[in-house]
Design a protein that fits this description.
Layout: H1 12-18, H2 23-32, E1 39-40, E2 44-45, E3 53-64, H3 81-87, E4 93-97, H4 109-118, E5 122-125, H5 132-138, E6 142-144, E7 156-161, E8 165-167, E9 170-172, E10 177-181, E11 184-188, H6 193-215, H7 228-239
Parallel strand pairs: 3-4, 4-5, 5-6
Antiparallel strand pairs: 1-11, 2-6, 3-7, 3-10, 8-9, 10-11
Length: 240
């Protein structure tokens, strides 16, 4: 766990703005900045229609199970998922590196209920949950790879929280911003947050205009992306 507190507060204005920007748009904008590996593989919404999530990452990490460490007794250890949950501040999103393991559920209904009670914004993992019906019943927004009955210690050892992790093949640092919707979860590095807040809504407006042109019968070449003439037409609508 981190020795130094990491600021986890996210400006409500940032949350409001990015809540209107899709993860598809964000991956395009980040690609233009040279970042290709920002989509966390295996992070699917546990239920359709979950509201878009925007929050700072509170990271947790598992390693492969080792028989002397991955035991039910470990659940009472000071280094445990239970202790990590108690350290989560309201408004964060728990980002859990489970190495993509599909046959050991990292969290079940009781742990998710505690997170929901603490005001945690959601759970994102490349692993799976257990007690699926109960997890759904907690109302906690979850993005993961699915569900499995066995507990975490059947295949994983929990080792740390609030350190850099590799969730879904993406390097996630504590405090990075996660945006998640029906297309999965995307990382915004802290250094690029302000730029994405500015560029995201503009890209959404541009694409909405392009969609209007498509509905009017416009051909795609020169429209998407817009050439100079179409860019000028778009700018004229903004000016008007």
């Amino acid at each position: 766990m981190s020795d130094n507190p990491i600021p986890m507060h996210l400006d409500p204005a940032v949350v409001q703005t990015l809540s209107q920007v899709t993860t598809a748009t964000l991956t395009t904008l980040l690609l233009k900045k040279g970042l290709r590996n920002v989509w966390l593989r295996g992070t699917r919404p546990i239920r359709p229609g979950q509201s878009r999530l925007v929050a700072r990452a509170f990271t947790l990490r598992f390693v492969p199970a080792r028989e002397d460490l991955a035991t039910p007794a470990s659940w009472s250890s000071p280094i445990s998922t239970r202790a990590a949950i108690e350290a989560m501040p309201a408004g964060c999103v728990a980002v859990v590196d489970a190495m993509g393991v599909q046959d050991a559920g990292i969290f079940g209904d009781i742990l998710c209920a505690r997170m929901q009670h603490k005001g945690v914004a959601g759970l994102v993992s490349d692993g799976v949950v257990r007690d699926l019906a109960g997890v759904l019943g907690t109302g906690l927004p979850v993005w993961c790879s699915g569900a499995a009955a066995p507990p975490s210690v059947a295949g994983l050892t929990f080792v740390d929280w609030q350190r850099p992790v590799a969730c879904g093949g993406v390097a996630v640092f504590p405090g990075d911003v996660i945006v998640a919707d029906d297309d999965g979860a995307v990382l915004i590095p802290q250094a690029l947050l302000d730029e994405m807040v500015q560029a995201g809504p503009e890209q959404e407006r541009l694409e909405a205009w392009i969609m209007e042109q498509v509905h009017q019968g416009q051909a795609l070449p020169g429209l998407y992306p817009p050439n100079e003439a179409n860019a000028a037409r778009y700018m004229a609508t903004k000016a008007g």
